[in-house]
Amino acid sequence: MTNTPAFNLGAWRTLDNTTGGNILRIPTQHLVTHAAIFGMTGSGKSGLVTVVIEEALSAGVPTIIIDVKGDLPNLLLTLPSFDPGLLAPWVEASGEKDPVANLELATKRSKERKQALAFAGIGETDLQKFCDTTSIRVITPGATAGESLHVLSALERRSSRWDTDTESARNALSAAVSLVLRLLGRDPDPAKSREHVLLSVLAERRLVAGQNADIGSLMQDLTNPPMAQIGALSVNSFLKKRERSNLAAALNNLLASPTFCSWRRGASLDIADWVAPKNGRTQAVIVSVAHLDEEERALVLGVLLEEILSWVRGLPGSERLKALIVFDEVYGFLPPHPANPPTKRPIVALMKQARAFGVGIVVATQNPMDLDYRALSNAGIWCIGRLQTDADRARVLDGLAGVSQKGEESEADLARNVQRLAPRWFIIKDAHEASVGPILLQPRQTISLMRGPMTRNEILRARQWRVSLEGVELPANSVLRPAVVVEIPESIRKTKVFGFGDGDSEG
Ligand SMILES: Nc1ncnc2c1ncn2[C@@H]1O[C@H](COP(=O)(O)OP(=O)(O)O)[C@@H](O)[C@H]1O
Ligand SMILES: [Mg+2]
Questions:
Q1: Using one digit for the tens of pLDDT, what is the confidence trace for 94-122?
Q2: pLDDT score of 276
Q3: 423 CB less than 6 Å from ligand 1?
Q4: Angstrom distances, CA of residue 69 to CA of 41, 287, 292
Q5: For ligand 1, is residue 113 a contact (CB within 6 Å)?
Q6: CA 142 – CA 265 distance, rounded (Å)
Q7: Rounded to 5 degrees, what are φ and ψ at 165?
Q8: What is the CATH number of domain 6-83+127-146+284-290+323-497?
Q9: In the prediction, which pLDDT does 502 show?
Q10: Does any ligand 1 atom lie closer than 6 A to the CB of residue 386?
Q11: Which of 348, 370, 453, 466 has a CA-to-CA distance to 328 between 20 and 30 Å?
């Protein structure tokens, strides 16, 4: 078997159900051209997303994960062995805290997990290795369950980008100004709000001159504008003195408010630092926004995605997968024209540009009607799970037709198959592999415990546990788990490898 790094996604079957195997491997570099995952709630999207993340980390590919629903912090729960004692604190037998019943249930679950993972060729040493070689961080902007994030760092901490890539620095600034205006309860839309324009001009003037544009200095600039004109208008006709004073006063109230502090504390939005290996560990950074309201989510993620885009544009070109950006439940953040939330521009740009830099994007959604298919036409890998309505199915198959080779499969056949899909089954199509038409994929068991959205206390507890685990320093040369380690007789194990043309005709 080849040693080309590959993602072990799960078991596969041909659409006519005549051939299959336990392991479907997709070469890692196929992810450079992005993946899109569709399926109704409960179809197994987050499970598949988790598998992709686990495989990326195992291959040494750092991953940034955007979590809207709150279940991806489950990645913290990657236990190093099948010891039921490790599992017991994370299962609940009867709703009550009964240690004996919990241990019983944990023993049962542990056995099931062991079996399911063995099916995918993953054993206890792999669990240990996964724990030893990865670092899982959870960041919760504006809240304290996870690490805090200085969401306004594009504004308040000057980046050297202003000297090298003004356009992306300006986009990141614009997103940060939108967030400030939203926190003030004002219009955050850069295209409509004069306050947005004025604040951006004032901030940019400082940043270009090598200073920070902290809120305090912007308040001074609003009261005593350092320039006479904005565009063709005098500052006073652009925004009256009284309105500027109002805005300055609102900024002052914001500065004084304790909740605002939580937005300006903690790590800078420094993507290069996030993805750099630490103590030999490959980094996963989960940015969870489940606790925020809809508009806050869009604004915070707009800020984050602009930063990611700007980081990507500063990378050297690469054909190898160097990092993965994963967005579970992208519904509402990448809508079709004319809707334009702050997340849309950077996602579209990432899907168009990131491949040249070796950065893959994975998006998952339960609502295929609400998506910009022009952006999705950049995705080379499509995974279609169970979908509820005819309209949803038709929409996805239409989109898929755009990336598929012509004439290799009948659309009616595919539609029938999509309709029949059981939960946790997907139809997968990899545009890199024209000779392999769409086939069925059952994502493998996740290494992480999937226990659904975690409460604030559970996140805190899981982070503590994970930090104690990661506290042990690794030797610098510790190796990562190769994609497949277990040899199982061919009679029971069949491995399909995309992209190697080794004639997968086992049946
Ligand atoms: N790959 C997997 N490994 C283990 N459990 C899974 C996997 N995929 C799904 N599940 C189980 O099925 C449930 C629903 O799947 P999920 O991925 O959360 O669906 P979706 O994200 O589409 O709503 C999960 O809570 C989990 O218990
Ligand atoms: Mg989900």
A1: 666 677 888 899 999 999 999 999 999 99
A2: 95
A3: no
A4: 11, 11, 10
A5: no
A6: 9
A7: -145, 80
A8: 3.40.50.300
A9: 33
A10: no
A11: 466
Cβ-contact 295, 35 below 8 angstroms: no
Q: How far apart are CA 242 and CA 63, in angstroms?
A: 47
Q: Which ligand is nearest to the CA of 423?
A: 1
**Ligand 1 center to residue 26 CA distance, Å?**
21
Q: Using CA of residue 335, residue 339, residue 343, residue 346, what is the dihedral sign?
A: positive
- Residue 343 has a pLDDT of 95
What 3 state SS string does 283-337 have? EEEEEECCCCCHHHHHHHHHHHHHHHHHHHHCCCCCCCCCEEEEEECCCCCCCCC
According to DSSP, the residues that pair with 497 across neighbouring strands are 25
Nearest CA owner, ligand 1 atom 7: 47
- Separation of CA 45 and ligand 1 centre (Å): 7
Compute the distance from residue 410 Cα to the ligand 2 centre, in Å: 29
Contact 42, 31 (CB under 8 A): no
Give which of 95, 89, 80, 162 is closest to 129, Cα–Cα: 80
pLDDT tier at 267 (50, 70, 90 boundaries)? confident
Helix (H) or strand (E) holding 396: helix 390-403
Helix axes 166-183, 294-313, angle to 10 degrees: 170
Do the bridges between strand 229-230 and strand 233-234 make them parallel or antiparallel, or are there none, so unpaired? antiparallel
Structure tokens at 177: 């100004």
pLDDT for the residue 260: 80
Confidence class of residue 402 from pLDDT cuts 50, 70 and 90?
low
Confidence of residue 469 (pLDDT cuts 50, 70, 90): confident
Instruction: Quote the ligand 2 centre to 386 CA distance (angstroms).
Output: 13
Q: What is the mean pLDDT of residues 177-192?
A: 88
Give residue 405's identity as a one-letter amino acid code.
Q
